[in-house]
Amino acid sequence: MTTSLGAPPAPPAAVRSRQDRGLADRIALSAATRQGVHLRTADVHAWLTERRRVNAFQVDRIPFAELTQWRFEDGSGNLVHRSGRFFTVEGMRVVDRDGPGREWRQPVIRQPEIGILGILAKEFDGVLHFLMQAKMEPGNPNLLQLSPTVQATRSNYTKAHRGANVTLIDHFHRPDRHRVIVDVLQSEQGSWFFHKSNRNMIVETVGDVPELDDFRWLTLGQIAELLHEDDLVNMNARSVLSCVPHQDTTPGALLSDAQLLSWFTGERSRHDVYAERVPLCSVSGWRRGKETIEHEEGRYFKVVAVSVRAGNREVVHWDQPLIEPVGVGVTAFLVRTIGGVPHVLVHARVEAGFLDTVELAPTVQCTPANHAHLPPRRRPPFLDAVLGAPASRIRYEAIHSEEGGRFLNARSRYLVVDANATEAGLDPPPGYAWVTPAQLSALTRHGHYLNVEARTLLACLNAGALRPQGGM
User: What CATH number is attached to the domain comprising 263?
Assistant: First the structure.
């Protein structure tokens, strides 16, 4: 049969498997491989030390008046970049109609452009390795941490700063769809960002990748060991790693997937929270000084300014505002083994800056100092169970930094804590549910289900924080 023009018919469309059945085995092998072919795990610290030595890094706090590239906008008072790009510090008005007249205003970062957080993968000696970068961020307490291969806003990779090209960006800007392992939009902190999303990606390459001083190939097993150390694997890397499609070997869960999704949809539906951007100058309860914008009671966070020098960045000198939290946070999953399967207690958490208002969060996520003045009934649920847990019940603990490009010295104590039936029953209070890490991993294939703190803890769970310990 031919068409009316005499051309042969097009071949029938080919179908393919909806999943790469061999990928789970390759991921498992990488996770089980504790020594890579390029860098021993024990040598990672020496490499980072050497990169700090050869690159000049300096971060100084400065008054707002010394910002050369930023200004307070006339009329709104918003803190904006002179190019109109990057991000702005604005005000946010929040009305929580669930509570009795709860309304507040606060500063918030608005960055409408979607950035790329991308990790390049490649097989060496039959084992998947992942290309990690020793990246300086001005807000990191130790400046240099392991980051994704590429960590760039649209303003960065379109060179709004008029600096150098973002290294290896071409692997992620228009990736070969046949080589994509992970590609999903995920949220960032809903308490400090307004509707912020980044594209989390893992892309495999079979081609040659140039050997660069600030980059090293590591297996998932090596990265898992490094996740047990303080201030080493940065937030963006943890977010991307949480999306790795690990194989589910558990026999089931307390809630079926349909029940979990129904519960979560109900949680999203029942909350009535309204958030809108407002001029920064209209934010009541906060005061602007020469060097900080801070809450009148000294809680929550401050907006500060810094001047930065970094010899290995696309731009070697710049200044910018940062959000500086007041106090170290506590972020924790309570865990119980149910029917032989580890489960974690998740919280359907409302954060005004989320696109969908509610995302799944850890059992506890707060800065305890912000709640110390409150009576026990008004403090975050389960906080006392986490803070009072003996060392024998702590399955995982490390201090991790939050995103160092926007936050200054933002650190949280991340924990996985065994709970007993008295502290956390199988019928948790409204807003909480028992789920398995495998169910959380499945949800990371879709955007805006798990918040960034839950994704960090999921990456830590995948790094071996849990082992089955019998049923309850």
Answer: 3.90.79.40
